[in-house]
Amino acid sequence: MSSSSTITTRKTRATTVISNVTDGSPIFDDFHTNLSSPIEFINLYNQYFQSLTHRSTLINILSNILTLENVDKKILSFILDCFITNSENLSDIQFKQDLLPFIKQILITNDENNNDILLSTIRLLIVFVEYRPNILTLTLAEWLSCLLNFLVTHLSSTTYTTYADLIIDLLSKIVKQFTPLSKEIIDILGRSPSSVISTSFLNQLKLWIQNTDDIRLALFAIHLWQLLAALLSRLLLRGHTKGNEMLAVIEDGEFAY
């Protein structure tokens, strides 16, 4: 992904849900001409937000913009924040066809210049898990796999402070809303290229728990382990090899104190 001020995302045709506001619509055209100008774009949004009777029209347009190329990063962050405050106006099909591919791309792309977008993405998932869980159910394996991939590829002893509180909040809500996970979903999560139950990640988690020089990191790792154990409890309860390996993380960590 580019380290410039724009992000190149997938380019698709508008969905049928929003074709009526993207095909020659003056509103859509106004937004489209300002995809590199955050100030103008935000001002335009505020103007339409005050004047439009059906504000879901704005959400339709913002949803479609996520499928376009070369959109300024500040605009993408603003769009995600708009979804956070107007999540009730996002339809199931808009989430699946427009927003979900964007979320997956952001989570699996390791770009340190995307921190603001990553943080907004995590906040958005928190809102959806808590207030719109039904919109997430059918694609649970997809976005959860990408989220756990994010933990494996992005978290380190230097970056965890940026995401720690939001990650713990999000995982806590996921455990409350979606567990117990089915065997099929557990299998999918286990097959992920960068799985949280891979030996390398579990060893890393163990080292963090044993890190007496950074107590905050150790406490974060313990809390993260607790949530992952709750999320993947099926592995622990059935005596699965990986379940035993997960248990060893916390058992071995206790001897460090």
Number of strands: 2
Cα distance spanning the termini: 42 Å
Which value, in Å, is the CA radius of gyration?
A: 20 Å
Domains (count): 2
Given the helix and strand composition, which structural class is it?
mainly alpha
Largest sheet: 2 strands, antiparallel
**N-to-C SSE series?**
EHHHHEHHHHHHHHHHH
* Outline type: elongated
In DSSP terms (H or I, runs of 4 or more residues), the helix count works out at 15
Query: Considering DSSP H and I runs of 4 or more, what fraction of the residues is helical?
Result: 55-70%
* Low-pLDDT residue intervals, each spanning 5 or more residues: 10-24
What percentage of amino acids are in beta strands? under 5%
**Strand order across the largest sheet:** 1-2
- The whole-number mean of residue pLDDT values reads 86
Can you characterise this structure?
There is one protein chain. The chain has a two-stranded antiparallel sheet. It has helices spanning 19-22, 26-32, 38-51, 56-65, 73-85, 92-108, 115-131, 134-137, 140-154, 160-178, 183-190, 199-209, 215-231, 233-237, 241-254; strands at residues 6-7, 71-72. It contains 15 helices and two strands. The protein is mainly α. It starts with 5 loop residues before the first strand and ends with a helix.
How are the secondary structure elements laid out?
Blueprint lengths: L5 E2 L11 H4 L3 H7 L5 H14 L4 H10 L5 E2 H13 L6 H17 L6 H17 L2 H4 L2 H15 L5 H19 L4 H8 L8 H11 L5 H17 L1 H5 L3 H14 L3
Antiparallel strand pairs: 1-2
Give a concise summary.
With 257 residues, the chain is mainly alpha-helical. It has helices spanning 19-22, 26-32, 38-51, 56-65, 73-85, 92-108, 115-131, 134-137, 140-154, 160-178, 183-190, 199-209, 215-231, 233-237, 241-254; strands spanning 6-7, 71-72.
